[in-house]
Amino acid sequence: MLVRPLDVDFPAELRRYQREQAKGRSRGRHLSEIIKYLMVRIEPDRFKNTDIEQVNPLTLEMGFVWEDVLSKVMAERIMRLRGLQQTEIEFDGIFMTIDGYLRKTKRIVEVKTTRMSAAHPISSGRWFRHWHYQTKGYCMGMGVREAEIWPVFLNGSYEQHRFGEMVCKPVVVEYTQREVDDNWEMILRTRDRMDREDRRK
């Protein structure tokens, strides 16, 4: 048996693929990039290495794979049953891609995967503030105040006997109008700061 390594730069190939995938998005500011910019400044130790050129591409690709798998699962198991589909909206010049919207209950639906512990409550500003920045932004764009969050915790609750046992704990979050409005003002201020920095480059 003769085994030879393939002459392939796998990380480079993954980065090239990820850049091509990003080209399909609408031009302009996206809520996700605004939140990323914001979180790098709020919690740099936790979010500073989220740039596509700095993250291990295999780690990054794992997120894309999970997103693809979950999209199919949710479409087949939940989204299709509820008549939902992913949709892109634009509000105040900011683009947002919403996993689903329930017209009957006027709720946006967002699916998440995370390695954080399921023991942390979704209401925790320490652990999940960036999720709430996003869902409150979607609520603003759709003119509603409720969000269903379907979080898949990849490592469970981190208990020794349960570590690695995935769990999904869907919740409904009802925001006040003040919370939605204040969040959007913060998003717009951050967008404007990003625009100013871009102009100075």
Could you characterize the architecture of this molecule?
It is a single chain. This protein has one domain: Lambda Exonuclease, Chain A. The protein has helices at residues 10-22, 31-42, 44-47, 57-79, 125-142, 177-200, and strands at residues 29-30, 87-91, 94-98, 100-102, 107-114, 146-153, 167-168, 171-174. The strands form 2 sheets. Strands 4, 5, 6, 7 and 8 form a 5-stranded mixed β-sheet that branches. α2 (31-42) crosses α6 (177-200) and α5 crosses α6. With 201 residues, the chain is an alpha/beta fold. The termini are far apart. The chain is 47% helix and 18% strand. A hairpin with a 4-residue loop joins β4 (100-102) and β5.
Short characterization:
The chain is of the alpha/beta class and 201 residues long. It contains 6 helices and 8 strands.
Query: What oligomeric arrangement do these chains adopt?
Result: single chain
Order of helices and strands: HEHHHEEEEHEEEH
Estimated share of beta-strand residues: 15-25%
| Low-confidence runs of at least 5 consecutive residues | none
Number of DSSP strand runs: 8
| Radius of gyration, CA atoms, in whole angstroms | 18 Å
| Distance between the ends | 56 Å
Estimate percent helicity: 40-55%
